[in-house]
Design a protein that fits this description.
The protein has 63 residues and is α+β, with helices and mostly antiparallel strands. Strand 1 and strand 2 form a beta hairpin. It has two helices and three strands; from the N terminus they run H-E-E-H-E. It has one domain. A three-stranded antiparallel β-sheet has the order 1-2-3, with no helix packed on it. The protein is globular and about 40 Å long.
Length: 63
């Protein structure tokens, strides 16, 4: 099983999206051509619906 780039120490963009319902985490290696333009260019706002599926998705629930 290949390890994810964030574990192996490869530089890149790491993004965490959080709201009251979930936490999503994404990572792109430095030279990954699929890095969204809004991440690559440092946009002041982003639309994560246009991005690839999150690497990690944590659903927040109350017990």
């Amino acid at each position: 099983m290949a390890q994810h780039s964030i574990i192996t120490g490869v530089a890149g963009a790491y993004v965490v999206e959080r709201n009251n319902d979930f936490i999503k985490m994404r990572f792109w290696a430095r030279n990954d051509e699929s890095v969204p333009a809004d991440v690559k260019n440092g946009a002041s706002s982003v639309n994560t619906d246009n991005w690839v599926r999150a690497h990690h998705f944590l659903l927040l629930v109350e017990f």
